[in-house]
Design brief:
Layout (H helix, E strand, L loop, with lengths): L3 H14 L13 H26 L8 H7 L14 H13 L4 H10 L3 E6 L22 E7 L6 H8 L5 E6 L1
Parallel strand pairs: 2-3
Antiparallel strand pairs: 1-2
Length: about 180
């Protein structure tokens, strides 16, 4: 971890680089250099204090849950029950913060709406070792995904697909 002085020098260097070329004297003994150093010291101190605060805060405070939800686009758009407890809301925020797109992400996302994802089927690209009878993955099939799901009638699948799946994908939910 950088010390406050090292961070100040780094911020001062960045601030000097942001000055217009030729417009200002960037030597060490000018008023501009003193001003840059003062601003860099404040930025470094703010950065240092912020990192120290974030290292202390391990959990999402219940008082700030509405701000976290607004930041992460929550509550979930297509849910019917908006009467979730604070713990459930905090768990959803933690989940959104820590997961990336993938089969497991979509499986857990759909479980929030009471839908079970059985399989996510996407066409494989054609390979030279495939048999002649293998289906060819054309340009039209590249962005097409089939979702095999259970209990999809309990949730608004079109709303979930529009809200949480990438827009370039064509999603076809199929009840298993």
């Amino acid at each position: 971890m950088m010390t406050l002085d090292q961070s100040t020098l780094l911020y001062a260097s960045v601030l000097r680089q942001l000055l217009p070329v030729g417009g200002y004297d960037t030597s060490a003994n000018t008023n501009i250099a003193i001003d840059i150093y003062a601003h860099a010291k404040l930025l470094a101190q703010t950065d240092f204090d912020g990192k120290r605060l974030l290292s202390v805060i391990h959990d999402i405070p219940p008082e700030l849950i509405s701000e976290y939800e607004r930041e992460y686009g929550l509550p979930l758009n297509c849910s019917f029950d908006d009467d979730r407890s604070i713990e459930e809301r905090i768990n959803i925020v933690k989940w959104v913060r820590s997961h990336i797109f993938g089969t497991e992400y979509y499986r857990q996302l759909l479980s929030f709406f009471g839908v079970e994802l059985i399989n996510l089927v996407k066409p494989k690209p054609m390979q030279c070792t495939d048999p002649c009878t293998a289906p060819v993955n054309t340009e039209q099939l590249r962005y097409k995904i089939k979702l095999l799901v259970k209990n999809s009638n309990t949730a608004n699948m079109s709303c979930i697909i529009e809200s949480y799946f990438p827009a370039f994908l064509q999603i076809d939910p199929v009840e298993a």
